[in-house]
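Section 4.2 – Deliverable D4.2 (structural model, holo form)

The reporting period included a commitment to supply a predicted holo structure for the target in complex with pyridoxal-5'-phosphate. Inputs used:
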Amino acid sequence: MIPFAKISMTDVEKKYINQALETNKICGDGEFTKKCTGWFKENCGINNFLLTTSCTHSLELAALLAGLKQGDEVLVPSYTFVSTADAILLRGATPVFIDIDKKTFNMDVNKIEEKITPKTKAIFPVHYAGVACDMDKIMEIAKKHNLIVIEDAAQGTLAYYKGKPLGTIGDYGCYSFHETKNYVMGEGGAIIVKDNDKYLEAEIIREKGTNRSQFIKGVVDKYTWHEVGSSYLPSDVLAAMLYGQLERADEIMEKRMHIWNTYHKSFESLEKQGKLARPYIPDYATHNAHMYYMVLPNEKIRNELMEKLKENGILAVFHYIPLHTSPMGIKLGYKQGDLPETEEYAKRLLRLPLYPDMTEEELTFICEKVHTILNTLI
Ligand SMILES: Cc1ncc(COP(=O)(O)O)c(C=O)c1O
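Output (structure tokens):
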């Protein structure tokens, strides 16, 4: 079976994991956590970067820092992973779902303003498939209505909007290093905080509400409880794995990009025949080959293609069940028909296997099978 995703683990990661284990200091904020933070500063110019235990936790931390509370409304796509909406609900605030732009699967920026009320406090744009949202437009709306912007860049590490790293444009940016992402540490993530004072607050909340970060930096000689917090810092063993991946970032990106481009070229003819639509990358976006998806003419063809690929040993998958039509979305008062584009396109999207160590044989086999199956179906 050709899996949908597979981690790329080499001696580099193993060496660093062993080094971390040998330090006898495997809690959070050790040497490898520092190295990861330094890497993002050096390679992407990102400041105020904190490694976390997951993007889910980064989003929760951002929601805390943004001061979201009961009665606040937060604009968010329905076409996203549950964590984006959970972060809002955990603060007692209400997610207000926005429909997607069918070309990018990102939040439709033309449908944001009609959902703004006096209760609206923030926007959570999600950079689907590592392809940037129209951030100029989103920031302009946010400025006009005084809203906080929290970028869910779970899929957007090392992807850019007009040359700016995703996650650095809004007030807060959140990354994922989950095993299914481009650079992995098992479970893990990061938060980027624009404002320096908020960054210091983030350090405290991430460390159970203490100023331990200041203590580690030698700024204070003991640390103590400053505010309510939680534990959002990962073990340095996991940071060691991530650092290995970051050292291999160019190689991983190159391999992913090769697969993405091969799929894209191969399916051009099928797109011309109207049998599928390929991903659309706006001029302002530099994507990171996180995901290759295709949009089929209808749900039946999507499901048949997925089934037949499986019979041929290829694991292709779809996601997401739109949040507004999921059981929790229904509890929130939403119903089928509320977000037509999200509902329609969620049924037609199919994701193909994409992982750095995919062989040329596997890649050719998948391309050939998609052609053969679609040509018999349509
Ligand atoms: C858009 C989006 N947000 C949040 C998350 C949650 O990331 P994590 O698994 O690191 O908590 C994911 C993970 O798939 C995601 O795709």
